Request: fold
Amino acid sequence: MRGLLAVLAVVAVAALAAPVAVADSSLHVNGGGQGTFGRDLDGDGDVDGSHFGIGVVFSGGSVRGHFECLMAGNADILGLPLMAVQGTVMTGSASVGVVTIGGTATVNLGNGTMFKNVPFQVVLHSGGPGVGQLQLTVIGAFDGVPGDTTTGNGNYDLPPETVATGQISIR
Reply:
């Protein structure tokens, strides 16, 4: 009996320690709201942030969905009346409470300038106000523009943005 209990204990510990394979189960990432960078990134005197929306499903080895980041109105940046990143999600990885998604987007600068098929990546941490986070990287564009945290790599790496209203759900 002790031998059986020992084997069951080892199996239980191994099962709990095993990584979760997203490809074998369904994972839903969704949410929306307003985020804040907690500081003025572009020197205009306003604390910057964005409005965001996410709807992504990991299922059967594929990742599909949509991501939007909108900086307009009360969430402006770079002195632009609008900056929108509207992306189709095609790749992703997940761990407990954190998801990284990527794909291609249309970037609209609101001044008549639009860029299509721009690669992007977003790291998402689940949670509501003050807890959830998102971090957007626009790949191959806008390097060195105000707000870029890693200049010289060809990308626009925004700092992490904390959820101010709304939530990010990973389940």
Strands lie at 27-36, 49-59, 62-77, 80-95, 98-108, 114-125, 133-138, 156-157, 161-170.
